Amino acid sequence: MVRNPQFEGQTKGRLGNSEVRPAVEGIITQQLTDYLENLKNQDVAQAIVAKAIKAAQVREAARKTRDNARKANQLETAPLVGKLSACRGKRAEDNELFIVEGDSAGGSAKQGRDSRYQAILPLRGKPLNAEKKRLDQVLSNEEFRSLITALGTSIDENFNLANLKYHKVIILSDADQDGAHIRAILLTFFFRYMKELVTGGHVYIGMPPLYKVQKGNKVMYAYDDKELQKCIKAAGKGYTLQRYKGLGEMNPEQLWATTMDPEQRKLMQVTIEDAALADRRITILMGDKVEPRRDYITEHADFNKPDHFEGPIREQEGGER
Fold it and tell me: What is the pTM of this model?
C-alpha cells in the first residue's frame, strides 16, 4: 500500500512516488527471470533476446552512420597545409589532380607541373585496402582523408560529383609492383565510394616511361621493352640507356616532358564495362578470402606477358600522346 500517492500529468496515469520504483522493479525482475528460465518458455526467451540484439545493432548502425556523416562533412573544410599543392585555376573542368607516390616524386611533380591548372597530392604512405575496411576506418585513414578533402565531393551516400574540383584525377605511381598495388588500392576506393568519378570518365592512369635512351642531345623515352628496341635501333651506336626504377629518379623537366605535359604524355582512362562483373572481381582480388583470389590468379595470370588488366574495369589509352 502506498501512502500519499502522487500521480504525474493531467490524466493521472502514472504513479510518481520514487519509493515505488525499486519495489516494482524487484518484483518484475524476479518474476520475469523465473518465467524466462522455465524450459517451457525458451521460445519466448529466444525471441526477446533476438529482438534486443537487433535493436542494439540498429542503434549501433545509426550511431556509425551519424559519426561517418559528421566525419565526411568535416573533411570538406579540413586543411591540407603541407599536403596538397593546389593549382591557381578556378575552373574545375580545366584542372587536374595528380596523385603521386611519395614525397620524392611529389617534389619533382610540384616543380615540373604547370601550376595554372595542375595540382599535386603526394601519398605519404600506402592507403588502406578499402575492400577490407569499414567506412569509419576508411574515413580515419590519413591518405584517404586528404584525397577526399582535395576532391571536394565527399564519399559514399554523400558523394556529389557537382562539387568535384578537378575533372582529371590522375594516378601517377611507379612502374613496379608497389606502384601497381597502390594503383589497385586507389581504384578499389574509387569504385566502392566514388563510383561516379569513374563512370563519369574522370579517373586516369599516368604512364611513366621505363627507359631513357640518349645519344648526344637526342633523347627518347620507351614505355615498354618493345618500344625500347625501336628507340635503340633509331639511336644507333653510342647511345646511353637509363632504366627508371621510380618517378623519384626523374628530375622535374623529365617528369613534365614524359608524364605531365598534355602535348606529350600518355594517359589511360579508367572505365567500367560491366559493373556487376567489376564488383565480383574486386571482391575476389581485393577481399579477405585467399582461396578465390589464388584460384583466379592461377587461372588467369600470364607471367610471361607485360602487366595488363583485361577486365570489367579497364584502363584505356587516351588520345593525348
Answer: 0.69
